[in-house]
Design goal:
Layout lengths: L16 E8 L13 E5 L6 H10 L3 E4 L11 H7 L5 E3 L11 E5 L2 E4 L5 E4 L1 E3 L1 H39 L14 E5 L4 H8 L1 H7 L2 E5 L2 H7 L6 E3 L7 H4 L4 E6 L8 H6 L5 E4 L4 H11 L4 E4 L16 H9 L4 E3 H35 L3 H22 L1
Parallel strand pairs: 1-2, 2-3, 3-4, 9-10, 9-14, 10-11, 11-12, 12-13, 14-15
Antiparallel strand pairs: 1-5, 4-8, 5-6, 6-7
Amino acid sequence: MKMSGLLSRRTNDLAGVVGTVRQIKPGSPVPRRLGTKDIAVLDLNRAPAEIARALVESEVAAVVHTPRDEEGMLPRAAFRILAESTIPVIEDADLSDVADGTRVRIDDGVVYSVKSQGEIASGREVDSATLLTEVDTAESGYVESALAHLANATEFLSLEHPLLLDGEGLPSIDVDFTDRHVVVVTGDESSRAQLAEIKPFIREYRPLLVGVGTGAEFLRSVRLTADLVVATPTDVSDEVLTDGAVLVVPADRDGRAEGLEKITELGLGATTFPAAANARDMALLLAYHGGAEMIVVTGDDRGLENAFRSSSAPSSTMVDTAVSSRLIHAAACATLYRSRGAGLGLALVVLAALVAVVVVVLARDAAQDLLIWAVETWNSFALWVQGLLR
C-alpha cells in the first residue's frame, strides 16, 4: 500500500511519513496515547487481534513489523486486520533497538532519523494484496510444518514410549531427585536473563541445578554450581566438567556418544544416556522419573508461536507432555516471585509504621490498652508475613 498524502508528515519537504517511534513489546498493552503522529514498532507474530484493532482505531502513521531473528511470518489475525486498513505496514526494517520516542521518517520502506537525517534501517513497504498473500502462504506453511512436526513426534513416541511412560532405559546416576525442586538450565540464549530472574527462587528453595549443554556455562557464570550436567563433553569447558557435577553424556539409541575422549583425558567418570531425545529432554526425564516435586526449565517457550519451527525438537513435544504435571517455565516462576516481592515490600512498609507506633507509645507512656493494641496488631502482622513466605 503506497503511503498516501493524507498520512504524510513532511519535514523540510522530504517525502514520506514522519512520526514518533512507539515500541510495543509482546504481552504489553497498547500505549494509551497512540495517535496519527506515532509509528508503532512491534512483532506482529506475537500481537493479538485486539492490538491490531487498537492500532487501526488510533490511525497510527505506520506500523513496522519486527519479528525475531530469522523467523518467518505466522498466520496471525493482526496481519489481516492491518491489511484491511489504510495504515502502511513496513517489513524487514529492524527497529527493535530504536529507543521509544525517537523521531523517524519512513520513505518507501527506508527509515531515517529525523534528527540526523541518516538511514537507520531499510525494509519494504507492503500493500494490502501482498500482505494478504503473505498471510495465506504463512498459514499453509504453518499447517504443513505442524503436520510434519507431529508426525516426527509420533514416531518418537512409538520408539520411546517405555522411556516416557515408565522411565525404562534411564541411566542410574548418583543424584537423588526425590521430592526436590529442580531447575533445568538450557543452552538457549534466553536462559541467561531467565536465570537472573529466578535467583530469588533458587535462594529460597535451594533446588537441584541441572545444566544442559552451555546452560551449565550460564550457571557457572553466575557462581552457581550444577549438581548434574547433561551435555556432549566437547560442547562445554573443562571447568564445567571438573566442577564436581554428575556427568551424563547423550548417546544415540545404539549407544554411540560423542566427546567421551575428553572425559577420559580429564580423568573423570560419566554415564551415557542412549535415547532418541535431545539433552534437554533427557534432563527433564531424569528429574521427572527420579521423583522431582517440581521442575523449572529455562529457555525459549514452546507455545504455538515456536512449537513447529525447524529448531523445535519433536521429542520435546512428547517429553513436555509426559512431565507436564510437574513442569513450569522459568518465566512463570519469575512472575510469581515478582508478585511476592511486591507483597513483601508492602509488608515492610506496614512493619515500619507499626514500629513507629510502638516507639511513640513507649516514649509517651500512653495508656495500657493502646500498647495491648499494638502488640496484637504486631502478632497479626507476623502471621500475615509468614503466610506470604509459605
